[in-house]
Structures are given as C-alpha cells and as structure tokens.
Amino acid sequence: MSFIDKLGDSIVSMSKDVGQKAKEASGIAKLKLDIRIKQEYVKEQYAQLGKVYYEAHKNEDVPEKQRFDKISDALDEIDKMELQILELKRARRCPNCGVEASETAEFCSNCGAKLGVVVGEAKGEDVTNNEDSHPTEDVELEEEPDDNSEWL
Ligand SMILES: [Zn+2]
Fold first, then answer.
1. Which of 22, 51, 77, 140 is most buried, with most CB under 10 Å away?
2. Looking at the structure, do residues 78 and 109 belong to the same domain, yes or no?
C-alpha cells in the first residue's frame, strides 16, 4: 500500500470517527423514536383487542367479569355525563346515529335522519325520544392510524 493510499485511508477513517459519534447518537434517537411509535401501536392494538373482547363477552360469566362490570359502569357514567352536556347545550342526539344535533335542527347533519322540530308548546313531552340511542362505535382492527402506516 502506497503512502498516498495509507494517507487517504487514515483521512477516511478519521472522518469516520468524527461522524461516528453523531451517527450513533442520531441512530439511538431514531431507534428510541421508532420504539416509542411501535409501543404506541401495540398499546392501541391491545386496547382495540380488549374492546372487541369486551363487546363479545360482556354479558357472559367470564373470569374478567369484574373488570367488565367496571368498564360498563364507566361507560354508563360517560353516557350520563354526555347527556348532561347535551342538556346544558340545549342539544340532543340523533336517534339514528347518535351524533349531536341542535334542538332546532330538523335533520341530522351526519346521517340526514329526520329529527323533528322540538315545538315550544310540546314541553315536557319527549319529542326527541333519544333516551335509548347510543352512538355505536365500531371497532375496526384493520384501520391503522396514519402515523403507523410506514410499519405496515
Ligand atoms: Zn344522525
């Protein structure tokens, strides 16, 4: 190996050393970020899986029954609080899709269902009749958040 070749090699390896630290640091940072994204993804999948399992077995006497009941109670409370918000906002839920609609809206802005106008004189009469309507939330395991699209 000639002197020039050796010199060239040592210059290359020196600049490699200099760049190496920065490369390692950014490599670690990138990996940590990737790990966090993956962890979030797994967490989300666990949550969706848990929801699917809950929906499928909530009325069964499974070993997780106690946990199911806690979830059911929490969902009921959420439902009640959401109704309170609707009352405070003088709004209501579409009986068809469960989306919030103003008291004066004739049709649902989401699904187009006829809501019927709440007439002032009809106070006390339950013209909205939305007590039993709950928004149906479908769990779609296939649908991935956009952030994780690169992992698929
Ligand atoms: Zn609707």
1. 51
2. no
Provide mean pLDDT across the span 26-55: 96
Q: Give the Å distance between the CA of 64 and the centre of ligand 1.
A: 34
Using CA atoms, how far residue 134 sits from 26, 59, 76, 81, in Å, is 48, 18, 11, 13
Residue 150 included in any domain: no
Q: Ligand 1: distance of its center to the CA of 63 in Å?
A: 37
Task: Tell whether pTM > 0.70.
Answer: no
If one counts the domains in the chain, the total is 3
* 44 and 66, same domain (yes or no): no
Ligand 1 center–CA 92 separation, angstroms: 11
Range of the domain at 64: 59-88
The stretch 108-133 carries a mean pLDDT of: 64
Q: How far is the CA of 99 from the centre of ligand 1 (A)?
A: 6
Per-residue pLDDT, averaged over 55-72, amounts to: 91
